Amino acid sequence: xxxxxxxxxxAGPAGVPGIRQSLxxxxxxxxxxxxxxxxxxxxxxxxxxxxxxxxxxxQESAADLGHMGISxxxxxxxxxxxxxxxxVFIVGTLLTTAVALALAxxxxxxxxLLLAELAPRWLAAPLxxxxxxxxAVPSIVVGLxxxxxxxxxxxxxVEPFLKHVPVLDALFHGPPLGASILLASVVLAIMILxxxxxxSRLSMAGVPLADREAGMALAxxxxxxxxxxxVPGARRGIRAAVTLAMGRxxxxxxxxxxxxxxxxxLPHSLLSPGSTLGSAIVNSFSEALPGTLQKSGVVAxxxxxxxxxxxxxxxxxxLMRARTxxxxxxxxxxxxxxxxxxxxxxxxxxxx
Amino acid sequence: xxxxxxxxxxPVTASWRRxxxxxxxRRRLERRRRLGRxxxxxxxxxxxxxxxPLVSLVFYIVARGLPALSLGFLVHTPTPEGIPGNGxxxxxxxxxxxxxxxxxxxxxxxxxxxxxxxxxxxKLSGVVRFVADVLxxxxxxxxxxxxxxxxxxTIGYSGLAGSFALAVLMLPIMVRAxxxxxxxxxxxxxxxxxxxxxxxxxxVRSVVLRTALPGIVTxxxxxxARAIGETAPLIFTIFGSQFYVxxxxxxxxxxxxxxxxxxxxxxxxAQQTAWGTAFVLLALVIVASVLARSWAGYLNxxxxxx
Amino acid sequence: xxxxxxxxxxxxxxxxxxxxxTHLAQDADPAHLVTPRPAAGAAPAPAVTLEDVTVSFGQHxxxxxxxxALGANRVTALVGPSGCGKTSILRxxxxxxxHTGGTVTGTVHLGDLDVYGAGTSPELVRSRVGMVFQRPNxxxxxxxxxxxxxxxxxxxxxxxxxxxEAGEAALRQAALxxxxxxxxxxxxxxxxxxxxxxxxxxxxxxxxxxxxxxDEPCSSLxxxxxxxxxxxxxxxxxxxxxxxxxxxxxxxxxxxxxTAVFLLGDDRVGELVxxxxxxxxxxxxxxxxxxxxxxxxxx
Lengths: 352, 306, 299
Fold this sequence. Notes:
The complex is a heterotrimer.
Chain A: H1 2-10, H2 18-28, H3 31-68, E1 77-78, E2 83-84, H4 87-118, H5 121-136, H6 139-163, H7 181-205, H8 209-217, H9 222-233, H10 235-251, H11 254-259, H12 277-287, H13 293-321
Antiparallel strand pairs in A: 1-2
Helix pairs in contact in A: 3-13, 4-5, 4-7, 4-10, 5-7, 6-7, 7-10, 8-9, 10-13, 12-13
Chain B: H1 14-65, H2 71-75, H3 89-119, H4 123-136, H5 140-155, H6 159-183, H7 187-195, H8 200-229, H9 232-235, H10 255-263, H11 268-305
Chain C: H1 9-25, E1 46-57, E2 60-71, E3 75-79, H2 86-93, E4 102-110, E5 113-114, H3 122-128, E6 129-132, H4 144-154, H5 160-173, H6 177-180, H7 193-206, E7 211-215, H8 223-236, E8 241-245, H9 249-255, E9 258-264, E10 270-277, H10 278-283, H11 288-297
Parallel strand pairs in C: 2-10, 3-8, 3-9, 6-7, 7-8
Antiparallel strand pairs in C: 1-2, 1-4, 4-5, 9-10
Helix pairs in contact in C: 1-11, 4-5, 4-7, 5-7, 7-8
């Protein structure tokens, strides 16, 4: 690598007399200033876009935020009486996200444990590619599938069945309509599953071989190694995966709109049609005329959604990037036999 | 054998303890194994649950989307319900234009911002990283509303507003991917370049960008693949159109929007259109993802040969 | 490597032989180096018997047809250059190749137990054979105490009092109890490298193994920590049979009762060339290749 790049830099056989002059010319041309300008420009555009996003959304929602004040967080959405609160939608968002996580976490962790630990490698690689392929499917396509395939299935079979399960039936009263908080949660769970699987499998695979061998040498079964060594060793990455998945579930709008039922009343069971912040934005946005309080109310929903997801995502990013705990590394480095693993490489920061 | 003083009851001799441990190990082994088998079976069940939606999804997209496809479907414009000759040609063109313009906007900014972060570690680049993280977590619907408020209210519904929204969506992903790719360039290479008397732009152009190119290409194309399928940023910005539109300042159509509009209608033919469009859209996304990975592989191979 | 091909190899070999000889002859009787125990052949029942053991990874044969009888409660060192199959032999004893794609042929007996027998479960073998690795590898998410008793828990021991007692006993055996008795709940990674390695030894001892496999346990430690571990190894042979892989000849001379020398054959496959009491192997090796290796390598 190095010789290639160095050769490029010389831009010709070494010792050619023209090089110095050409370098001088380069310097005179002021390439450096132009380049610095480019870099600063890129960063500036990036920053300006972000500031514009915050300012524009706050500006557009100012009317409703001023009108409702903090009560926007618990008041309902009643355009007829000029009340544009996010309360019902916040409940819907939290409810769908919670149910989606409750469904996706066990399934996702089981899947990643199988892929990282229990399945033979020749089988794990293609299976993993398949699960992660799901991440590439656009949300609109998942929504279409949920609306046309899952919705009738839920109305006809799944929801009536759930109403007959003892204990659980308390969660499922009301007519089985198909489109509901439950269906939206299932669709969300499917959409966040690849995130959970990909990230937690990655951090499980990152658990050092030395730790697994220590477990095995102590007579642990394969499952014991997975459960007692690999999962605890990967818990940081798993937590980050769940947090990022949570952010994604909260922010999803289109697919949810297609299956949630879009009811602005407070949901009283998982079978109720409901609304999330995202679906409410999609539904109300085109109804509201520009310049009205209603339009401002919709943008206020965006602000609320943004605030929630920024908090969740910032948490996830922090977890992702958090370094190993501040304890001395195991043993001095060096040696590094077959079972030795190099310490996690730090970010190679380039200083010039 | 040794006797160990113990705070907990009478001392236990080592040999006796060895017997006890052996006994436990023998007695519990079957149970431990059974637990392992049960849990592995549960994990297999979880895998099946993970794959079931995918299999069903792919099955229906192929089973319902493929029959909708024809050459005419790909080139015609939409017809009213019941009239044959329906097509999504305008949506395909719309997606290509909107996404293409978004790439034109986002790629240079993403590169420049990433260079900024990589070259100047410090407070300011920390801010850029933070912004990238926050924007990555921003729901795409929020970006759509932002583009609406900023552009639609001033220049009207247009492909351009949609492109802007997609560009905002892609930017943080690109910045992070570019940064990742560039920071894998060894410090030696930067220093080797500078030591030879090259000025910084030269070093960046010939060393860093060339070495990081595969990673940059992958990251940018993957961001594009994601943007192709996004609906939320477009739904309030490009409005949709029934005709071929090539002027970015006019309302346009795009495939995700066509799926959304058709899926929510009850006519079987509209649903068929939705499935057909979903098929084409998914195919496009797959092509973009595969391209992202194979192109990087090609660049890597080329770099090694030279 | 081979002194014959080096211009001044012979001189260097002489010098190093002399050094080792002085080491061994310091007290007329090398008792401080080689514990006076019966020679390998005269040992009671061997704790581990390997017969014609060959370990291969796919096409690559790591070590070929090694036969060894490791005396009970003795320290046996496996020495040799890197890549000659010492570690492969070690890992064949507790079936650690099962999961890494290695193939073991031949037979290994642990006492009467046929390690690779059809009805033998690897877990039961490993509950009787402890292992210590090259680099200290305490479980990073567990406390000191949880690390020590992890093997017992894996084996199904639930009794709190038994865990506490066995944990304390193991930590005492590893000469770690006085250091960690007040910080049993601390994360294991807070300990220093040498302490971590002793914790790993304690963890292995807690299961009360008959055999303790040690794979270059000092290779990542400083001299002081190494010294402590070596002292520990000598003491441990009262309870367990120790098999020690090392590439440090002096270490083998210091702590091992018996020594097995592995070298690479002409076809780059490791093989056992000499096995006997440490004093014999170092002072009067039967094989010329051992002689060449032992003398050429020390220095």
